[in-house]
């Protein structure tokens, strides 16, 4: 039985697409049963709809009640009875209520080799620092910013003429494959 997965997105959703494609090709031992976004114009919502996956939108307005937002996000995800939550380019921090319910089974990806270059600008910070190798990390979400237990990493070489965008695009290719691989590993562990 494939495990039931919720995916949360904020933007383009190419990581989500990698999971949907892997499922379509029989390469994923998991099924995306719901996609949630904090941003109503997230392209990931269209990708989910095209794949026939139910969606929800749960925006957070500046100055809003963060605890109430977190509790409602938890409820919206919990409704779908999921075993794993994937933050796939989700640009909000989940809060304590969410972690009490889904901690230990919520994963995120980061476009750098943590603990180097955490935060919003992993590819830019790696490029500015002048590292020759960076990469991507899949980790377990905890209450910090990109601080959770590391589950998998893949290195990506920085090329001499890289821009932030060219580097990030190459990292994202590795990131998609690593995410599919890690979800499969977790699904197998859940089975045993
Ligand atoms: C990924 O590089 C992810 O690590 C970062 O944002 C990007 C999301 O890409 N947080 P997409 O929206 O899945 O295309």
What is the SS-derived class?
A: alpha/beta
Task: Order the strands across the largest sheet as they lie in space.
Answer: 3-2-1-4-5-6-7
The count of helical stretches stands at 6
CATH architecture term: 3-Layer(aba) Sandwich
- Total individual domains: 1
The CATH superfamily turns out to be Formyl transferase, N-terminal domain
If you consult CATH, what is the topology? Rossmann fold
Attached small molecules: 5-O-phosphono-beta-D-ribofuranosylamine
Main sheet specs: 7 strands, mixed
CATH class: Alpha Beta
Mean pLDDT score, rounded? 96
Shape: globular
Strand content: 15-25%
What does this protein look like?
The protein is of the alpha/beta class and 192 residues long. The chain has a single domain (3-191), classed as Formyl transferase, N-terminal domain (Rossmann fold), CATH 3.40.50.170. 39% of the residues lie in helices and 22% in strands. Strands 3-2-1-4-5-6-7 form a 7-stranded mixed beta sheet. Helix 3 packs parallel to helix 4 (96-102). The longest helix is centred in the C-terminal third of the chain and has 28 residues, at 164-191. The termini are close together. 5-O-phosphono-beta-D-ribofuranosylamine binds at residues 11-15, 88-89, 109-111, 172, 175.
């Amino acid at each position: 039985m494939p495990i039931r997965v919720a995916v949360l997105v904020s933007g383009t959703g190419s990581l989500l697409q990698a999971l949907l494609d892997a499922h379509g090709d029989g390469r994923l031992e998991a099924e995306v049963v719901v996609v949630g976004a904090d941003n109503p114009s997230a392209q990931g919502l269209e990708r989910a709809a095209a794949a026939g996956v139910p969606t929800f939108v749960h925006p957070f307005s500046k100055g809003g009640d963060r605890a109430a937002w977190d509790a409602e996000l938890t409820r919206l995800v919990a409704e779908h009875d999921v075993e794993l939550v994937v933050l796939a380019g989700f640009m909000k921090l989940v809060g304590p209520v969410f972690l009490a319910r889904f901690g230990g089974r919520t994963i995120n990806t980061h476009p750098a080799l943590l603990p180097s270059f955490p935060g919003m600008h992993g590819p830019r910070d790696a490029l500015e620092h002048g590292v020759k190798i960076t990469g991507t990390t899949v980790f377990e979400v905890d209450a910090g910013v990109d601080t959770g237990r590391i589950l998998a990493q893949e290195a990506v070489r920085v090329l001499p003429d890289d821009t932030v965008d060219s580097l990030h695009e190459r990292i994202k290719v590795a990131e998609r494959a690593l995410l599919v691989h890690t979800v499969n590993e977790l699904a197998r562990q859940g089975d045993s």
